[in-house]
């Protein structure tokens, strides 16, 4: 089997998504008013407008697929603008969607009431077309800035937690995730196991085929591990050719089955560099089930000792750690 795993970086796709039209929702129980507003907003470039007379229907649609701007009438039967704005904010789980509240109300306190309910801007009837267009443009710009900031924040999080070569968790992120799982073992008595994995004779690969080939082997290794893992499992690169997997809700017997499956799969892999013959790899794996009162450091030490024993015994094998050490028995 030939396997290569090209990887374009942990933030690939986050910041280069194609531009899509901005979605504007107009909610007004008076359809002629809504259509007049839609005709003005549609003058803006790259905008799609959807009009709703029925406020509950509009609310359900906005919560299911948040638009980029809501133009909302203040007075509507059944569900008025204030209740709509509050319900929308509560249903967006922190996502920012600008709301322009539109009303013919002239009493004092209307603006403050609308803003307190979650409106971002306020427009009094009868509105001026130029003003409506300008306010809609400003709100869409605000929404665009929010989305760009959110994308950059997501990219920074990925960079901070991901190994740039393989796309899996880096050492720090793996330690944080694994610590939480081992703490859960101590708190609730649920099983969890740890695999410590080391690619056999990896230095020979780097020395014989070059670092580019070594990188291809590391990426392929990580990709094949991912194929065997669940979404709840945590795979991390601890450094160099050393990897670890934390398996929640998995006892030693289940971890051994998975580790042996991984070992056999990787032994059959051939990585084909751009300018060289296929490269074979094998892996040595140490397995340890977390003890009821054990810390992550303790589980890591036992799994690492089992890994060392597997390498001393000839490599390309899986060994289980001594469970007695988890209870403080030498």
From TrEMBL:
PANTHER family: DIGUANYLATE CYCLASE DGCM-RELATED (PTHR45138:SF9), REGULATORY COMPONENTS OF SENSORY TRANSDUCTION SYSTEM (PTHR45138). GO terms for molecular function: diguanylate cyclase activity. Residues 190-323 form the GGDEF domain. Its EC number is 2.7.7.65. Keywords: Phosphoprotein. PROSITE patterns: GGDEF, RESPONSE_REGULATORY. One of its GO terms (biological process) is cell adhesion involved in single-species biofilm formation. The modification 4-aspartylphosphate is found at residue 73. This is diguanylate cyclase. Residues 23-140 form the Response regulatory domain. It comes from Caenispirillum bisanense. It catalyses: 2 GTP = 3',3'-c-di-GMP + 2 diphosphate. NCBIfam families: GGDEF. GO terms for cellular component: plasma membrane.
């Amino acid at each position: 089997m030939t396997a290569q795993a090209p990887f374009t970086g942990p933030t690939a796709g986050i910041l280069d998504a194609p531009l899509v039209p901005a979605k504007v929702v107009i909610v007004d129980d008076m359809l002629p008013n809504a259509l007049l507003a839609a005709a003005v907003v549609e003058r803006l470039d790259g905008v799609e407008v959807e009009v709703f007379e029925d406020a509950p229907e509009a609310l359900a649609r906005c919560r299911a697929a948040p638009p980029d701007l809501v133009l909302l009438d203040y007075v509507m039967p059944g569900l008025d603008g204030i209740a709509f704005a509050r319900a929308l904010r509560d249903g967006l789980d922190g996502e920012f969607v600008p709301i322009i509240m539109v009303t013919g109300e002239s009493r004092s306190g209307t603006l403050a009431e609308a803003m307190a309910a979650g409106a971002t801007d306020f427009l009094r009837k009868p509105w001026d077309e130029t003003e409506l267009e300008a306010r809609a443009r400003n709100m869409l710009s605000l929404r665009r800035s929010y989305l760009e900031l959110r994308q950059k924040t997501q990219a920074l999080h990925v960079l901070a937690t991901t190994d740039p070569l393989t796309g899996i968790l880096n050492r720090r992120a793996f330690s944080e995730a694994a610590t939480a799982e081992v703490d859960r073992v101590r708190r609730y008595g649920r099983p969890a196991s740890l695999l410590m994995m080391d690619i056999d004779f990896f230095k020979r690969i780097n020395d014989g085929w070059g670092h580019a080939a070594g990188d291809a082997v590391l990426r392929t290794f990580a990709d094949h591990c991912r194929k065997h893992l669940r979404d709840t499992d945590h795979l991390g690169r601890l450094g160099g050719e050393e990897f670890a997997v934390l398996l929640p809700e998995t006892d030693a017997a289940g971890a051994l089955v998975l580790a042996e499956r991984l070992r056999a799969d990787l032994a059959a892999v051939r990585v084909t560099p751009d300018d060289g013959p296929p490269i074979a790899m094998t892996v040595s794996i140490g397995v340890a089930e977390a003890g009821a009162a054990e810390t992550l450091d303790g589980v890591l030490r036992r799994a690492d000792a089992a890994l060392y024993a597997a390498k001393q015994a000839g490599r390309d094998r899986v060994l289980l750690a001594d469970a007695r050490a988890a209870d403080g028995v030498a």
